[in-house]
Amino acid sequence: MIGFRVDANEKIATGHLMRCIAIAAACQKKGKQCLFLLAEGKETQRLADRGLPYRVMGTEWNDMESEKEQLAQILDEQRFEYMVVDSYQATIPYLKWLNSRVPVLYIDDLAREIYPVTAVLHYSQWKDDQSYFNQYQNIPVKVLAGMEYTPLREEFAQRYYEKREKRILITTGGTDPFNITYKLLSICLCDEVFASYSYDVIVGSMNVYEAQLKEMEHQYPPIKIHKNITNMSDYMRGCEMAVSAGGTTLFELCACGIPTVCFSFAENQMKFSKEIGEHEIMFYAGDARYNDKIEIDICQCLHRFLENKKLEAEYARRMLELVDGKGCERIVEVLCSK
């Protein structure tokens, strides 16, 4: 059995849970049972919909040290072959303790520490950068670094293309704390070019501006609000361009080859979102925390794609070269190895 220790709530992006779900689905294809361990009972419907068993421990999500006693009981009951941990709240002492009980694969986004675990996953690693491997040089930790390990759902491993419509996809993940979606739509609807476009807006489960967006949808038929979708790749492949906050969604868009304008609004998003712009994979419009007019910059980036179709095609080509959508298969090879 493979265990997953992960949380999702108003403070933790749902991307953490979703990538664990993707890895779990690949584990199930290999005949492995999976069990998710959560501090609180939020976002559990996503697991139930996919037939993934879970246990809610009723502990504090931001104090993982306090859950050791209850988690130890679960470890005694279950025979885990590996435990995948995806949480910024996991401390080094916590991971060291857990790894002494069961091999741990820690998903490390920030690359700020050397973790005392069996394996680490750091997939936002560029090919020309060996710094993460160097951190673990001469340390007995299995390092999975590089975008070939990006944990995407199976639908993103398929290389096929829908007919792209005059449509723009907008997604910010589980939340949208700066209400970027509403502000951007307001600008696009008044833009001479983009007023003729349609918009697929993916609303996260903890977006506090959902009612405002639905009111806008009611007033403007070109806007379609979608929530809890299970076929994200279809929406991506059917659009001409996309706007996305940082996170796993950027890798999904790469696998689909959709010209994208990205931005960030959280610390864990900023570094990679900026880098993907510097590598000329996507246009990076900046960070909403420091740019109160970011929706204007996003719209200008969309215009850049429209005004230079050769540039748009080149960006799409680089995206497809970056991510092949088979990362989960490579991760599961490690989880299932002796």
UniProtKB/TrEMBL annotation:
Q: Does the keyword Translocase apply?
A: no
- Bilayer-crossing residues are none
Query: Which N-terminal stretch is annotated as signal sequence?
Result: none
Taxonomic source organism: Lachnospira intestinalis
Q: Its Gene Ontology molecular function terms?
A: hydrolase activity
Q: What is its EC number?
A: 3.6.1.57
Q: Which UniProt keywords apply?
A: Hydrolase
**Entry keyword Hydrolase:** yes
Alphabetized InterPro entries for the sequence: PseG
NCBIfam families named among the record's database cross-references: PseG
Enzyme class, top EC level, equals: hydrolase
Q: Return the protein name.
A: UDP-2,4-diacetamido-2,4, 6-trideoxy-beta-L-altropyranose hydrolase
Domain of life from the UniProt record: Bacteria
